[in-house]
Specification:
Chain lengths: 77, 193
Amino acid sequence: MKNTATITWIILLVLTITSALVSKLESKYVVFIILILSAFKFFGIAFQFMEIKKAHVFWKTIIIGFIFLFGIGLLVA
Amino acid sequence: MNKIAIDYKNIWYPPGGILIWIIIFLELFTFGAALIAMTHYGNLEAELFHNSRLILNTTYGMINTLFLLTSGFFMAVSVSELKKGNKVKFKKLLLLTILFGVLFLGLKSFEYSEKLNEGITVGYNTFFTFYWMLTLFHVIHVIVGLVILVSVYFGIKKGKSNTSIEDVEASAAFWHMCDLIWMMLFPVIYLLF
């Protein structure tokens, strides 16, 4: 657990700094990239730190479904 | 401490218990709906939202994200240590979890005081109405989370503790929920517009 959590933590830190740097870029894809990076961070916390990876498939599906709906909501809002 | 064998593959027993997960999803949907509404208004007043977003200090937001992620990391490792029966290490890691939560609150307070000194309050414009409402609502969750973690710390510290591993996991799930909510707030409020 400790090694997996450490690797997850480092990846989450790198993704956070990357998101902040990407937001400074002038590109039409910036919004999409930031949302994708944020979704990865969300999954990292839910699946590794909260151990949803060990849970019933229902909980995994509902987490992925929520982020999918949230992302769609932001893009069409 | 009471130890209970939990089968996480059972649909009724996700890590932390089903009740905390019902709360987590209610919170995620509430914040999610508010952020979608904010994006909607952001599209209606694109220039105002862009200029307002530039007033925010992205570095503060990023450092606060790093604080919460580090706190979440210590929380996850501390629960793992408790499951191995290592109460001493659990308590040390839980204190680190609490410390990074407090650092988050400290930097947020500093950010709030800067905004208030500049006269940017909840009624300043639509962007800042969302900013204040959403981040303050999140701060309340962080404060409640810290109170829960402190009570878990003293619960486990007692010689004859009746705190079960499920209680600790539920508390940890609540704390991680604060991370999840911030992972939604940070990109939308600090980066997107």
